[in-house]
Design goal:
Length: 428
């Protein structure tokens, strides 16, 4: 990031804000802590970023909507007995095989399918949710954001999705999941606090706190196995440790035993568990595509689709693969199937829009790109909408799209910069 007077101004304003209302009381522990965000700012920040965050991490899991209802019901039960029952809590299951869970300020919480399939019963699920609720209730993320905001002199939470995704070589087609997004990095003390108070909430809601001990044990075991997606996911934001296992075991002994609800949990995740081999085939397909073995990738994707034909991600990958084989008609139709199965996810619109544009179907391309942009602004959509605006002689619109695309940097950022020069507009 370039340093200029406005960055300096932001830093000054932030420093002033910290001095004004920096020291607040942690609503969970009663201890004083440092944050620049007021409670209403926290809620606003969480609300503003909840949807784009979900979009950038695979979107909601919609094959079995009952699963989200189930998880949400347990989350609300725990939130109601937390130290901040008044926050506008929301819980969503994300369609993402990486074992991860996160909380935005203000109680906006998400849990990946990849984590759910690792759990055994409802008390372990309650341990995950209770832990995330504490992060939100104790303002850990607001706190952490205060620090990173001061470092970066700007509270921009969701930026452009620019990093390459699991799609590897296919990433250029549009499904760049993303990344520029802020990710929580909690400290050791915050993790212990989240475990300990999360277990209190579990006990208050009637769950066996032993679920939190087993959860930590599972995490430690898996992190020792060093599977890279685990390290990128949950463990990056909530590092597991033997110390946490020990602390949780001691805490569990002070609390009343409760229910496990194994049967209810297993019933709720039956669909995603049954489908898991299909998601694994899809992961293998993405790896094969990353090695440019498109033939193998397509075969694996077809297998995944046969196992679960209602999964939009599988259809979108099929679209990418057909596109790479110059089968444009097949690719458009596969992207359309993805959209049918999940009409509220940005990525297939983006992929179909970029393909339509290359086929010179400018109007449908623009509709798709605008639709994708409505769910999650991306550099690719901004850049290509800019080009489409030039075709329509809408110079002002083109400038605004290219300005947005230029901020994302990289090759597309440079191309946008060049377009701005051609248009006689200077990027900010
Ligand atoms: Zn944590």
């Amino acid at each position: 990031m370039r340093h200029n007077s406005s960055t300096l101004m932001t830093a000054v304003v932030l420093a002033a804000l910290v001095m004004l209302n920096g020291c607040t009381v942690n609503p969970v522990t009663g201890e004083s802590q440092f944050t620049i965000l007021s409670p209403s700012q926290e809620v606003a920040l969480g609300e503003k970023n909840y949807q784009p965050y979900q979009q950038s991490q695979g979107g909601a899991y919609v094959v079995d909507p009952d699963l989200t209802l189930y998880v949400s019901g347990i989350g609300q039960k725990l939130a109601a007995v937390s130290d901040r029952p008044d926050l506008p809590y929301e819980f969503v299951v994300l369609n993402n095989p990486v074992p991860n869970a996160w909380a935005l300020p203000g109680g906006k919480i998400a849990l990946n399918t990849g984590l759910l399939v690792q759990l055994q019963d409802e008390s372990q699920l309650a341990a995950v949710l209770g832990h995330e609720i504490v992060h939100a209730a104790a303002r850990h993320s607001a706190n952490q954001m205060t620090r990173s905001a001061l470092l970066q002199a700007g509270v921009q939470v969701v930026g452009f999705a620019t990093r390459d995704s699991a799609y590897g070589a296919l990433a250029a087609t549009g499904a760049n999941l993303g990344a520029g997004a802020w990710q929580a990095r909690y400290g050791r003390d915050q993790e212990l606090e989240a475990d300990s108070y999360g277990m209190e909430y579990m006990a208050r809601a009637g769950y066996d706190p032993a679920g939190a001990v087993e959860l930590q044990e599972t995490f430690v075991r898996l992190s020792e196995g060093r599977r890279s997606n685990w390290l990128d996911g949950l463990f990056a934001s909530h590092p597991p440790s033997r110390a946490r296992v020990v602390a949780n075991r001691a805490k569990a002994q002070q609390l009343a035993k409760g229910v496990r609800n194994r049967t209810a949990f297993q019933r709720a995740i039956a669909r995603v568990k049954k489908d898991w081999p299909a998601y694994e085939k899809h992961q293998q397909a993405l790896q094969a595509a990353g090695k440019k073995d498109y033939h193998q990738a397509l075969a694996l994707t077809e297998q995944a689709i046969r196992l679960q034909p209602r999964e939009a991600h599988f259809w979108e990958t099929k679209g990418h693969l057909l596109k790479s084989k110059q089968d444009s008609a097949g690719a458009v139709s596969a992207y359309s199937r993805a959209i049918t199965h999940n009409p509220d996810y940005f990525s297939p619109y983006l992929s179909r829009g970029l393909l339509q544009k290359s086929l010179r179907r400018y109007q449908t391309a623009e509709q798709d790109l605008l639709r994708s942009q409505g769910y999650l602004p991306t550099q690719a959509a901004s850049y290509h909408l800019g080009e489409l605006a030039i075709r329509r002689d809408s110079r002002d619109q083109a400038i605004s799209y290219f300005n947005a695309a230029a901020q994302g940097g990289g090759e597309l950022g440079q191309a946008a910069q060049a377009q701005l020069v051609k248009l006689g507009a200077v990027a900010q």
